Every structure is written in C-alpha cells, then in structure tokens.
Amino acid sequence: MPASEIQTAWAQRLQRELAQNVLPWWQASIFDAEGRVLGGRANDGAVLDAPRTAVLGTRLLWTFTTAQRRLGRNPALDLAAERALAWVRGTLTDPVHGGVFWSVDGDGQPVADHKQTYAQAFAIYALMAQHAADCAAQGLPLAAVTPAAQDALRLFDLLDTHARDGQAGGYMEACTRDWQPLPDATLSADEPPAARSMNTLLHVLEAFTELLRCHRQPLVATRLRELVEIFLDRLWLPGQRCFGLFFSIDWRPMTTQVSWGHDIEAAWLLRRACEVLADDDLSRRVDALVPQVADAVLQGGVADDGSVLGAGLFDGRVTDARRHWWCQAEAMVGFWDAWQLTGDPRFQRAAWRVWQHIDKHHVDPVGGDWLKTLDEQLHPVDSIPRAGPWECPYHHVRACVEMMERLAHA
C-alpha cells in the first residue's frame, strides 16, 4: 500500500485498540462496586489487594480525562473519570499538609504517607489533563483557572518550596508527610538510594510542560528550562551515549545501568518541553541530541524482532531481556518523533516494527488491555499483574493517542 494508506490504517487500528480493548477493560476492571480504586488485577483477572499507589491513581485520572478529550465522551468513560478524580482529590490528597500520599489501602487510609516527588509530578500531570478536559467541555481557553488547575499550581508551589535543590539544581526524591527532606528515598526496592534519579526528573519535566502549556507563569517556565538544561548538561553521558539513571548530590553517576525505554521516552518529552517553552536556542540543542539518543537505543537496545529490551550496562551487555509494555509504547512514539525531526527512514521503520511487536505479543484481545511483561521467549510473565501499583494504562494510552495524531498529520 502507499505510505499514506498504511498510516491511515495504522491510526485507525490504534483508535480501535483504545476504544474497544484498552479503555473498556480499565473502566470495568479497576474500580470496586463503590467506585474505589482496586489494588490491581492478575493476568487471570483475579483482584489483588495491594496498596493503591498514587502512581496508579493519578495515571488513571490522566488516562480517562485524556480519552474524554481526544476520543469523545460517553457515560462509561465519564463515570470512570469522575471516580478517578474523586480518588485523587479526596483519597490520595493529604488534607493536612497538601500533596498526595505515596499509597493508601482499600479504605483510603495512608499506607505510606511520605511525599514522593515522582507522585506529586504525576498528580500535576493528571490534574492538567482534567483541566484541559474541563476547558474543552465548558468552551473555556486553556488559560482559564479551573479547580483542577488551582490544585496543580498548589502542588507546583509545594514541590518548588520543599523539594527543589536551590544549590545544585533539580529536585530531591522525596519529603516526609510534612515536607521535610527525606534522604535516601527510592521509588522501589530495586533502586539504589540516590539523591536524584533521571526517572523522577523526567516526570517532573513532563508535568511542568503541561502546566506551562496552560498557565504561562514565569516561574514554571524557569523551572522547566532548568530541567531541560539538567538533562542536556548533567544527565546525558556522551561517552556512554545514554542518560544516567541515578546520581549523587553533586551529580556523579552512581550506576552503570542503561534503560533504553527511559532514554527514548526522554528524547521525545524533551522535544515537547522545548516546543512549549518556545526557546529556539534550547530547541536547537535538544534537536541535536535526539538523533543520538534514538540511534543509541536502536543500536544497543532493540532486539532482532524490533522490540525494545528492558535494560543493560554501559559496556553493551543486556541485563534484562524481557519486553516491558511501557518500553515498547515509548519507543513507538520516540522513534517516530526522531523520524519526524530527521527524516531518517531507520527511525520510521523502527517505530513500525515496535508496533508490529506490540500488536502481535502485548495486545490481548481476549482478556483485554495489554500484557505488561514478556520473557525472552515472549511468553507472559505471570508474576507481573495486568493492573497494579505500577501497571497502569498511561504509557500505552498516551502512545496510541500520540501516534494517532502524528499519523494523521504525517
């Protein structure tokens, strides 16, 4: 088929995947009868009684409100968005000190009440999606001040006041419930104690990008610009052709790990940040870096079948050959974005091959949604749930929405 027909068919397939497989599963499967968020579901559909993380709750809100705006509203989607907003605003939000708890139990009582910077960033991101949906529904400009935007701006102020490192730059990983520094905090037991992580800074950058898109406050622009510069000057390791993952307080890399999924995700999110900042000089620097990132991921982190591997080391060794759904989702967008920037057909082909892998191996048309992790033989890893503390719809819903828009204008 001509390229235009392939792209049209691809976009239509992505829309069907969202509307008929992914969103219906999450709408029907992640809430209990009272509308509370469940701890998760195993691959066989069994309910998991795990802590309800802010990661899951905020990403649900982002997903449903984004779907309302991009795909059109319907009663089931509206109910899911309403439940997710109530969970974020009423259950996850600390009524005393502000910010969102890291996790709560099924009754909404805090399990871990500290203020992880990563979680606050996703709350901002989700609330700005709610704000955009509210503006679209009410015919308001994005610069309007909605309750969701007010909540997001309050979270920005809390992060900037308590979690920002005014001397060395960047943001600390976490604070206590009352916003005192919490050293050696980590996102999971698999991570080393570190003063800063690329993953946290990436999602703060992502959140500030959407906040600035709607509310062009000078301080938000300043902080977003600082973050882009940190990625360019501190996190990118040119000798290793990757972003470092964990850093000391004085920005020394603490590990030799490479995460190809994070690298390709950072590449397109940095471009998005510069687009919103409208900073030509910074855009030129980022545009020079993006092809290097995409090429490094393509050369070192992509399997023979076009799928993206989990992780490796600076010396090129693969340490995690599993295929994680979120790496595939981000690579599809990141490679396509690199092709849109450079015209290099290798990147266009890489995006298409990732989608072919996703459609063949991750999409589950019978059980619903996507299988989250596959082993080296591309069999589902049953210990990784369909929905859980980290297993959320955000990565693949966003990838589908992004690609639908980009394919329509390619």
UniProtKB/TrEMBL annotation:
SUPFAM superfamilies: Six-hairpin glycosidases (SSF48208)
UniProt keyword Isomerase, yes or no: yes
InterPro entries in alphabetical order: 6-hairpin_glycosidase_sf, 6hp_glycosidase-like_sf, AGE/CE
Alphabetical keyword list: Isomerase
Keyword Nucleotide-binding set for record: no
Coiled coil: none
UniProt superkingdom: Bacteria
Protein family according to the UniProt entry: Belongs to the N-acylglucosamine 2-epimerase family.
UniProt-recorded name of the protein: AGE family epimerase/isomerase
